[in-house]
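User: Second chain of the day. Same drill as before.
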Amino acid sequence: MYSMARASSAELADSGGSRALGQLVEVQPLAGRGEVSNCASGGKARGGAHNRADRESVGITYKQVANLREASLMAERIGLPLNRFITIDWELGGIPLAGMAKATGRITNLLTEWLRRQGYRTAWIRVHENAGSVGGHCHMLVHVPPTCVAKLVAAQKRWLRSITGGPYLRRAIKSVPIGGLLGLETSNHARYRANLERTVAYLCKGALQPSAAGWRQPGGRVIGKRCGTSQNIGAKARSMQ
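Assistant: Same format as last time:
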């Protein structure tokens, strides 16, 4: 069964503007730290033909959608709720489509290491897209402790400059808390969970199968890994629970 929910502009954001906001979203309820795991719901953790750096895709599969959703729930179970929605406009930053996946990997590593130095673990899911007027970009849902958010904003700009080799451009990174409020995952869990489900559905809007997500929008051509999760919430970690 699918439940229907309406997303507001305060709850979801995209660097490409508000063209997708206010639409109905179908949300399907689902019963150590590392860099990336396969987005498929089963099989090897990494490597193989499906993980080639030059692999091309035009959308995410039903299994990948299920994996992203299950990973988002796993994050909360291990005490690392995904509470921050980050969009990186790589095309605006001058990164070509063929280099987008590598650039996202670099910024994910920088974020993970930055939090580790401050004594925190993290978890994340991410999806690459290349559609509409935005071009190549990445959506991420990440666990960031509320006390780290203020410093994170400045750090993200530094990381982007180091990766692109140019100055930070306005709107290259958009970073907002889930539901529009810091700490919502503890202050109002029901509201947090509803907004998390909506945001995950938004990340999955480029699904190839109509039944996989109600929010449909072409994901566009992507080179390299289209989507993924941190190892601590990936398929292998979930199978060991």
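Residues 1-49 have pLDDT under 50 and may be disordered.

User: Great, on to the next one.
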